[in-house]
Design brief:
By secondary structure, this protein is of the alpha+beta class. It is built from three helices and four strands, in the order E-H-E-E-H-H-E. Helix 1 runs antiparallel to helix 3. The longest helix has 13 residues. The radius of gyration is 13 Å and the shape is globular. The model has no long low-confidence stretch (mean pLDDT 97).
Length: 101
């Protein structure tokens, strides 16, 4: 199994919305991938509540079977649609992928 974690800081004011609104949109869109993208074994998306200077606005944790499944997830049309908008509204994106024992 492989765990894929992504965190975003969103641009306040991008496309006329706040970073908090972007985070809420991202959570709604990513949560909707469950049952649509067959590679997803589990998915959790959260929105930061502390809003400190070192905080990111949103985090995604997805578990898939392996690297090949992650590639299929990443290239699924429903995911690509979200990723395209994320490029416009995200200031920073960081990710880590690791295997589960």
């Amino acid at each position: 199994m492989l765990k894929h974690i992504v965190m975003w800081r969103f641009k306040d004011g991008a496309e006329g919305q706040s970073a908090t609104q972007h985070a809420a949109w991202m959570k709604q869109q990513l949560d909707a991938l469950v049952g649509v993208v067959p590679e997803i074994r589990s998915l959790e998306c959260g929105i930061d509540v502390l809003r400190t200077p070192v905080s990111f606005d949103a985090v995604l944790t997805v578990v898939v079977d392996n690297i090949e499944a992650l590639s299929r997830y990443a290239n699924h049309p429903a995911h690509l649609k979200i990723a395209e908008r994320a490029k416009l509204i995200a200031d920073t994106r960081v990710a880590v992928d690791y295997t589960l024992d």
